[in-house]
Amino acid sequence: MSIDMIKQSRVTHFLIRNLDIILFAAIIFFKLMLYAKQISPEYLYMGVTHPVFASVLILASFSMLFEHKTRMNFLYTINLIIGLVLISDIMYYKYFKDVTTVAALRNIKLLSGVSSSVTSLIDIKDFIYVIDTIILFPFLKRYKNAKRKYNSTAVNKIVFFLLIFVTGISIDAKSVAAIAKEQPTLLSAMSNRIYLTKMIGNLNFHAVDAYNYISTNVKNSKKLSSERVTEIKSYLDDNNQITGSNLRGEAQGKNLIVIQVEALQQFAINKKVDGKEITPNLNKWINKSLYFDNYFYQVAGGNTSDAEFMSNNSLYPAASGAAYYTYSGNQYNSLASQLKNSDYYTAALHGYSEGFWNRNVMYKSESFDNFYGEHSFNVNEEVGLGLSDKSFLDQSIEKLKTFKEPYYSFLVTLSSHFPYDDSQGYGDFNVGQYENSILGNYLKGIHYTDEQLGMFLDKLDQEGITKNSLIVIYGDHFAIPKENINELYSFENVNNPDDLKWFQYQKVPLIIHFPEDENKGVNHTYGGQMDLYPTLANLFNLPRDYMFGKDLLNSNSNKVLFRSGSFTDGNAFYVSWTNTYYNIKTGNIIPETDELKKKKEEYTRELGYSDDMLNHNLIKSFEGDKSK
Ligand code: GP9
Ligand code: MN
Questions:
Q1: Least crowded by CB within 10 Å, which of 62, 113, 167, 510?
Q2: Residue 147: pLDDT above 70?
Q3: Ligand nearest to the CA of 476
């Protein structure tokens, strides 16, 4: 027999001996690519073949460690499990346009309202993910009982395992590293799970999610000492002492309508471009409202969801990732829960995918009675990221009119979303020299959203809703990212910008409109999104428990603390990444005084307290202690 023939027969023997693994790999690869296609109806990113193939290699590599019969059982079982996971993922996707996570499954009870809708989406075609396990079953038995002349040695098994495993891991690592470079917080914040799955495949997504879930739980498994718990509790008791009665209960019993506006950055307020106001409607409403012009966004890895989290709980964002994802199973003392205790109906409204930022789970944890997400709206017009602000706000008014009063409605807009490139949707707004720049596109986008907000607010007026409602409007976070900040500086004629100057542009407007335009004026108190809940607690005469923020209407503190550890007290600004202090008035760098050092240490402790609150679900323990 020639050399070639010997080689040929060896290869044939190798393929026959490992037919089970080859078949398994082909079937799983097919299923994963079919799933990838189903969640990317518009365009399948073919780069996903690499991480998908890598994830199959990794799984297959473990089978090399087993004897023939065990190996068959292992492969068959894994194939069945993956098939069932893909069926559940497809059902979840069809309803939420999202991917299930451990946290979502763990909080499945929180999704009870939609489980029937999700299961109603089961389609017979989806059983393609498991049909092979039925067809292959008889062959499995025959192949398993077939006499084996060759059983590889333990060394061979380990060598083959390592070869295949390391190959799979290295291909996978390359794909995951690329996505981590493109969107650094995505793997920990899991804000856009569908995008992540499209990039790295279903198995890798679940591996990342499982890793996040386990690492958070391992980190939090250490029980807090009773001294630490007592220290946190006394800090919070002290921080939540009532510090005044200005406007206390002023809005008690009234409806509360909070509108979180996507990327509403303060620099656009009361400004013109090419002689025309950028936000004429907000400017008009500011003149008949209480306006806070030193109000900062304090978001971190959770971006928009952090803005919601802070505004509704007065807890700092997660140290990494998104609290809306990592801590969605915690108990909260949220604004909705407190208003519900005062017999309010509470609803969150947002015209985008319910699973984005894990809102469908988190709003339940925040005790909202209902969440009107994308499926609750007629997506009859899209501007920017999805349902147009115009259509969202028009439809939302009709919903508000059906709510049992008093109600708390938390609305989150969408159209003015980075990179603000839907110029057609935004309509004509001349931005002069800023045309075709991020800044210029933003001005168009926020001008469009301002127009819709103006119509919404005027309609509330016409419907008589403003007469017995408190209306709160604020921006969720910056609009112009750091990489485009020079466009903003040139628009603002800022020369020699430094970190202090950058921070001074990280404000968002906070507008509080009272019935009959009462209490209007400009309040210069330095504050941030952490302070909204305590301020509303004062206005609605709600108890103040477990809040880290201050009541902006009854505080002489100008403290604003950011997740990065940076802070201001209204006179100095501390920039944590350069460990530098600035005098706000003079703009000069100043030395660290004992007083500033003490504040820095106190504020660092405070962030730690908030982290422990989240990591150890302390509100649940504190509330449990109360009921004893
Ligand atoms: C998505 C919208 C945008 O629902 O809130 O979130 P962002 O990308 O701004 O964090
Ligand atoms: Mn946002």
A1: 113
A2: no
A3: 2
Distance separating the N- and C-terminal Cα atoms of the chain: 86
Residue located nearest, by CA, to atom 10 of ligand 1: 304
Which alpha helices (H) appear in 436-518, and where do they start and end?
438-462, 485-491, 499-504
- Per the CB < 8 A criterion, the answer to whether 504 and 461 are in contact is no
DSSP type of residue 242: -
For ligand 1, atom 5, the nearest C-alpha belongs to 304
Spatial contact of 531 and 547, defined as CB atoms under 8 Å apart: no
Q: Any known ligand binding at 375?
A: no
Q: Does the C-beta of 413 come closer than 6 Å to ligand 1?
A: no
Torsion of CA 154, 156, 159, 161, to 10 degrees: -70
Question: What is the CATH T-level fold of the domain 246-626, as seen in this structure?
Answer: Alkaline Phosphatase, subunit A (3.40.720)
Ligand 2 centroid distance, CA of 475 (Å):
8
Q: Is 77 a catalytic residue?
A: no
Q: What is the three-class DSSP state of 625?
A: helix
Domain boundaries, the chain: 3-220, 246-626
Overall average pLDDT of the 560-575 stretch: 95
Beta-sheet pairing, 272-273 with 276-277: antiparallel
Pocket test for ligand 1, best of 96, 97, 304, 362 (most atoms within 8 A of CB): 304
Structure confidence at residue 495 as a pLDDT band (50, 70, 90): very high
Length of the chain: 628
How far does the centroid of ligand 1 lie from the alpha carbon of residue 304, in Å?
5
pLDDT (tens digit, 9 = 90+) per residue, 72-121? 899 999 999 999 999 989 987 876 668 888 876 765 555 554 555 555 56
139 Cβ contact list (under 8 Å, min separation 6):
none
